[in-house]
Amino acid sequence: MTAAQRRCGLVVRQLFETGNPAQPANAEVIESERRNLCDVTGFDICYVHFDKMAHDDPLTCHIKFLEKVAEIRPEFIYVHPHVFLDTMHFNVRVEILYAARLLYGPRLIFSFADLGYAFQTSLIAGYAAIGDISASWDGNGAELAKRVPGRTVLDLWAPRDGRLFRDLGIERDIDVGFIGKLHHYEDRRAAIVEARKIGAPIEVHGSDETGFVSDEDYVQFLNRSKITLNFSKTTAGAHQLKGRVIESILCGALLFESENEVTPRYLTPYRHYVPFTDPTDLAAKIRRYLGNDAARRAIVTAARAHVMENLSYRAWWRRVIGELVPGITIG
Hints:
Elements: E1 7-12, H1 27-41, E2 43-48, H2 50-56, H3 61-72, E3 76-79, H4 81-86, H5 94-104, E4 107-112, H6 118-128, E5 133-136, H7 141-147, E6 153-155, E7 174-179, H8 186-197, E8 202-205, H9 207-210, H10 215-224, E9 225-230, H11 243-250, E10 254-258, E11 274-276, H12 279-290, H13 293-310, H14 313-324
Parallel strand pairs: 1-2, 1-3, 3-4, 4-5, 5-6, 7-8, 7-9, 9-10, 10-11
């Protein structure tokens, strides 16, 4: 595609990632992310930080948003899922996005995480009802599709940036690691406690035990772990494909995950990851794979190759843009 033919897309992305205007995201990181998205999609991408618009002037923010759409004339508007999750009061209203669609013609792309929660799914169904494409990040798109019959809902995965999540080539001095919350997740806590009692060397890192974890610390921990644990169940009891699945594999750790029916739709058990059923099974499999480095490395290598080809950031956008513009080629 030549420069003259290059298309334009608009992305609604948070500036205040914590919801706190006093803590804006790093401008260099955001710009790097935008340039990467341009490269991946082949579109000229413009970011709009609607949360800042709403914070600066809540009375005119929606008019200013429509003015921005009129100025850019994007082929699509993509709304990042963190907008829905973290700062609902800073969302672009459904009727404004629909007005943008009617006035200026952009297709509307929404992506949603945590559809394993009925309340969350119901909250965002109004957006999906006007969307041209809605993409699930957690393998629970079928639940959303039931609420918006006739609309395109793609059951995808969390698109993780391979520039951040990668194998750093450092020493893996943690045998088994879990990084994440235990509070409110009794299944996680019970499995780890019981497995430790029978000798599993599990090191826990995360907001419950060590406070806030930066992206850099998170990636370091995954890179230091030979095996990393994931638990697929939400606090509501539904199973989901968590971002930690893709992140762990990209960082070169062997993924162990609680057995469920969602992940095998994306990864093959024992080829790409190791499922476990209970603390006894978990401890036994930890001993087996810590004692067989070749078997561990074989799964790690196969998993990373599979993710890079089929479940990468680029593959995610290839699927979405391919649905939006049939016949288009995304590298």
